[in-house]
UniProtKB/TrEMBL annotation:
Stated name of the protein: NADH oxidase
Stretches assigned to the FAD/NAD(P)-binding domain: 2-305
Domain of life: Bacteria
InterPro entries for the chain: FAD-bd_OxRdtase, FAD/NAD-bd_sf, FAD/NAD-binding_dom, FAD/NAD-linked_Rdtase_dimer_sf, NOXase, Pyr_nucl-diS_OxRdtase_dimer
Keywords, sorted A to Z: FAD, Flavoprotein, NAD, Oxidoreductase, Redox-active center
Record-stated family: Belongs to the class-III pyridine nucleotide-disulfide oxidoreductase family.
Keyword Oxidoreductase set for record: yes
EC numbers for this chain: 1.6.3.4
Length: 442
């Protein structure tokens, strides 16, 4: 059995490892147009902001590791076309040589592409994206240039907020723009995101919300960002608006979701029984929505790759769905969430209630302490938990995993009211904030 995997980042790597480690009869061919694989893009801001010493450890595996397992790897190779009927892949290597690759099963792990707004001046030098390792190298090179004093970040999602922090840590004047009214609007309700906005401003990031970039100005290199509300100096622009599924190879043949992602079943199988899709190019099942959706996260990519690998290898395995758990830490302020915010639940037609609570993490007599806030979102009629958000200067991140499982299992808010949560002053309060939030539900 010959399986070809197109795309060798998180999802493709997980699928390849699953096949190579468990199914010795499989011949695995990996094709990727990049010169490297396994880059943890979520660490780019840590590297650019010099919170870590170098980028080397952001690569968690390499070509040699897969070749040692018996994989045939074709790096710096572009797939030009796929003949799905004939099960043939037409490729072109970096030197221009062309060749064909046949397959019994095909796994598409082509990921996503950064959204690139086509506005006046978008072809100027000094306008960067953050996706590949090479993008991170270019942003780091420019931020290291003393002539670059003003940095404009377009998009205040996770990547935008993180790279804004990194640029500020490098001593730049940073302006952060978004059309939404707060940062992180896709993940958090304003009760949380406004705290992050204050945190950014307190640390010197100039925020511009409710503003849309309409043009870039400059002769050859960017010099300014123009929005619908003003004009601002910029020696470097970093676009972090978001991503779209990279599905150009199969969109004419395979059934696609509304945003263009390949539609897959619980086995990661597409509408073609011999083709699987994993990671950012594919849909995913949301346990909060109880419906098919699109959530581009590295953790989801890895899980989908494992599921596809086992199914291709001959072991039937169903995905259990996801909650879209995520987190961020900016200038020492930590926020984590899973499932749906109130805003996103209502956008998706769910009628929900929520309960909030805010307190110190530990009893007041403890010297090391900080405030913590929590919101639990639950469906009005069924009372099942569909989301949670938590924030603190403490590391409260592990708590969100319990809510992830609660959403997956359909646990109601009432089940949490008397949940057995231990108490010790070193860790928490006798009236735990999770318990208190649950007891506060209507």
């Amino acid at each position: 059995m010959k399986t070809v995997i197109i795309g060798a980042n998180h999802a493709g790597i997980a699928a390849a490892n699953t096949l190579l480690d468990n199914y010795p009869e499989q011949k695995v061919v990996m094709i990727d147009r990049n010169s490297n694989l396994s880059y943890l893009g979520c660490g780019t801001a840590l590297w650019v902001g010099r919170q870590i010493d170098s980028y080397e450890n952001l690569f968690y595996t390499n070509r040699e590791a897969f070749e040692a397992k018996g994989a045939d790897i074709r790096m710096e190779t572009t797939v030009k076309k796929i003949d799905f009927e004939g099960k043939k892949i037409f490729c072109e290597s970096l030197d221009g040589a062309t060749f064909e690759e046949s397959y019994d099963k095909l796994i598409l792990a082509t990921g996503s592409l950064p959204i690139a707004p086509q506005i006046p001046g978008s072809d100027l030098e000094g306008i960067s994206f953050l996706k590949l390792f090479q993008d991170g190298q270019e942003v780091d090179r420019q931020i290291s240039d003393p002539a670059v004093k003003n940095v404009a970040v377009i998009g205040a999602g996770y990547i935008g907020v993180e790279i804004a922090e990194a640029a500020k840590r490098r001593g730049k004047e940073v302006r952060l723009f978004d059309v939404a009214s707060t940062s992180l609007a896709s993940y958090y309700d304003p009760w949380f995101s406004k705290d992050m906005d204050e945190n950014l401003k307190k640390n010197g990031v100039e925020t511009h919300y409710g503003e849309r970039a309409t043009a870039y100005k400059g002769s050859k290199h960017v010099e300014a960002v123009v929005t619908d509300k003003g004009e601002y100096p910029a020696d470097l622009v970093i676009n972090a608006i978001g991503f779209i599924p990279n599905t150009g190879l199969g969109k004419e043949h395979l059934e696609c979701f509304g945003n263009g992602a390949y539609r897959v079943d619980s086995h990661q199988k597409t509408s073609d029984p011999d083709v699987y899709a994993v990671g950012d190019c594919a849909t995913i099942y949301s346990n909060a929505l109880r419906a098919e959706t699109y959530i581009a996260l590295a953790t989801n990519a890895v899980r989908s790759g494992i599921v596809a690998g086992h199914n291709v290898g001959g072991t039937e395995l169903e995905s259990i769905g996801v909650q879209g758990s995520n987190g961020i830490s900016i200038f020492g302020y930590n926020m984590v969430s899973t499932g749906l915010s109130v805003n996103m639940a209502e956008k998706n037609g769910l009628k929900v209630e929520y309960t909030d609570f805010e307190d110190l993490q530990r009893p007041g007599f403890m010297k090391h302490n900080a405030k913590v806030k929590i919101r639990i979102v639950y469906e009005k009629e069924s009372r099942r938990v569909v989301g949670a958000q938590m924030a603190s200067e403490e590391d409260i991140s592990m708590g969100i995993h319990m809510f992830s499982l609660a959403i997956e299992e359909g646990v109601t808010i009432d089940k949490l009211k008397l949940l057995d949560i231990f108490f010790l002053p070193h860790f928490n309060q006798p009236y735990n904030y999770i318990t208190m939030a649950a007891l506060g539900a209507k």
